[in-house]
Amino acid sequence: MSLLKNWLRASVAAVAVVAAVLVPPPAQATPMADANIQVSAENVVKVTSANHNQVMEASRTKLVVLDFGATWCPPCRQLKPVIEKLAAEYGGRFLLGEVDADISRDLMSRYRIQYLPTLVPMRNAAELPGSRMIGFRGETALRAWIDAQLAKG
Predict the structure, then answer these.
(1) Domains in the chain: how many in total?
(2) pLDDT digits over 92-137, tens only?
């Protein structure tokens, strides 16, 4: 029995070391200039019930892309660094609003999200009809989708 305990302790320690190496440190939050919301990276904001209305106000001046995802979702983990990179690359042409499906269940229900990841484009506090992107199909497809949403005005 003690051999099993030692093996489990060693396994837990190994997982902790690997996680510490692979998980990047959290980005520093900086306040957004024109709203009372926190931007965690360039043109990226964490959206919760508490700041949802402010993010929707931002959608009156630019495209807001709500990214519904979760840390346990493999396609969400693939999408996240790519869409964050594009948010920085596009230089403020759109605001990426990241919604954690496990924390903001009320927003999941409000937007009727059934699959993760789901991208919902917002303009003037309203969803652009028929424009959702479900899943992650690679950077090229994502870039084309963002360009199509920006072209809608």
Answers:
(1) 1
(2) 999 999 999 999 999 999 999 999 999 999 999 999 988 999 999 9
Quote the pTM value: 0.74
Domain-located, residue 31? yes
Q: Is residue 68 part of a domain?
A: yes
Whether 134 is covered by a domain: the verdict is yes
pLDDT confidence band for 12 (50 / 70 / 90)? very low
Catalytic residues: 73, 76
E strands in 33-110: 38-41, 44-46, 63-69, 94-100
3-state secondary structure of 118: strand
Chain centre to alpha carbon of residue 115: 14
Alpha-carbon distance 153 to 46, whole Å? Answer: 24
Contacts of 91 (CB under 8 A, 6+ apart): 43
- Taking only the tens place, the pLDDT of each residue in 41-95 is 679 999 999 999 999 999 999 999 999 999 999 999 999 999 999 999 999 999 9
Greatest extent of the chain over all pairs of C-alpha atoms, in Å: 66
Q: What is the CATH number of the domain that holds 80?
A: 3.40.30.10
Domain that holds residue 124: 27-151
